Amino acid sequence: MTENFITDEMQMLLNNKKSGYNYRERRHDQWNETYTLYRDTVIVDRLVQRQTVNIPLMKQTVRTLLKDIDDMPVLYYQNRDNDEQAEEFKNEFWNLTVDKNNMTLQDIVDKRQVLLFGRSFDQWQIVDGEIKMTIQDPMDILIDRYCDPTNIDSSRFLIHQHIFIPLSIIENNDDYDKEAVNRLKTWHASEMGLIRSTSNEASLQDKNKKMQDMGLEDVDSPILGETIVELTIHLVWRAEDGEDEQIYMYVEADDREILMKKPLEEVIGKTKDHFWRTHYNYCTWADDVERQDFWSDGVGDIVRQPNKILNVFMSQEAENRTLRNFGMQFYNAKNGFNPNTYQARPFGWYGVPGNPKEIISRVDIPALVGNLDTMNFIIAMTEKATGATATQQGDIQQRQVTLGEVKLALGEAKERVKGLSKFYTPAWKRRGLLFDKLIEAGASKLDAVKIWKKGKNTNKLYGREIAPKDWMTKSGYNCKIWTQEEKNSQDSDSLQKMHLAKATMPDNPKLDEIYKRKLLEFADLTPEENNQVMDYERRKQEQIGQAMMPGQAQPTMAQPTAQAQTTQQTSPMQGQAVDRLQALQGA
Prior knowledge:
- By secondary structure, the chain is of the alpha+beta class.
- Helix content is about 45%, strand content about 15%.
- The strands form five sheets. It has a five-stranded antiparallel beta sheet with strand order 4-5-6-7-8.
- It is flat.
- The termini are far apart.
């Protein structure tokens, strides 16, 4: 297929790809340098840095910040129809999805990408009957330069490139246009197809440069025995046949053939509010969002230049010490002087056409005075800029003369790091929404799953198979999300207020029950364990009531009832929760 046979739609896709690539290209070299510094790899420079020395400032800073960033947020679905059974099934299905997708580890990868590159992306889809969430490389995503950085759905297109698939798998996909697949096969069998000549080759080379710098030599080599096709997913806003604008999904191969074109709503499925007409199945976030530039800076951009300067200083320091240790000498070569390049070598002798100090003169290489002081200044400046202070890294600073000053500095640094949650918490809220809408739209595509629970008043496990029909209700769900830090703080405040209410009404059995349940939840008991403990408490109260003799005088309101006296006693489980609450308050 020659250039003349490119359709208008194909040209539109190529134009979008070129525009998105040009918008992102300015960040490629910066990302590659940041990544290689994080991986403790440097590119030797004959003029500036001749020693393969790397100060691990990039890795040290990123890992320090990751240590203090909160864990993966807590996400909970609340049923609007107050169906507790459906609510439990929905949240169990979410927990299974979290486990199957290793979201706890993916959350760390996600945050590390934001720290290194400033942006991270994840894709949501239904594959083989399961919901899949995958963190994507920013090098694989292209965005419209005029989009709102706070709203990915405002981009006129979203392109996911560098998806490599064997041609044999493409042939067996019934969703793809068979004529387009046959033309693709013919082209790959031609001489032009055997030589990679696609317009996005530069983008692929930029992506592979990171691995080339890490020492992988065959990164651009094809896989022998297989014909590999590069697919690109184009999600584009379009209005066709007089309908309102909606997102269309194109699957394009090697910048030559459109294998599939469908509305995204048709690919994923319909919801009551037609969600997938106006929303991408991708999520993104950044920790330094700005209005003018979608590809914003990350912590890696702050650390990169200081790290490079430190490497240069350390390289020069190492080379200076090495040359001084060589003990090189000049000698009198007046009668047979031959001007050659002087090569540094241990105990070298170098002839000059004169008489330096009559016979022998040592090659003087002065020490680099103040080099280490400058390096310490650069490290301290970087720590202040990123919030990854030496105290957070476990280094005791001499200038912190009191424990109070150390705690104050550490607390201030941690507060800066916790500010990152303001950016990734909304991202998790969108993820919860995408998960909910995928279920609503593709319930028929999801396989049933089996959950296991302990039986009531027993330690035996019982299994039950659940499917979307078991938790889908008329009004749907609210998605609640909070960080672990926020959850602990909210629980602590709630318990303090409830403790005050209980002290005011000590003989109120209902308030006492609610207070006990809150204590058990704060002690990290599961709902089943919570119910078991409360069932035992109820049976105990019933036995106390039955033990009272019929002729015994009933207690007056002025005297606490036996039930109130019992509820004021603290069980070991409650005692642990109270101790934990007091520890949090003290912290």
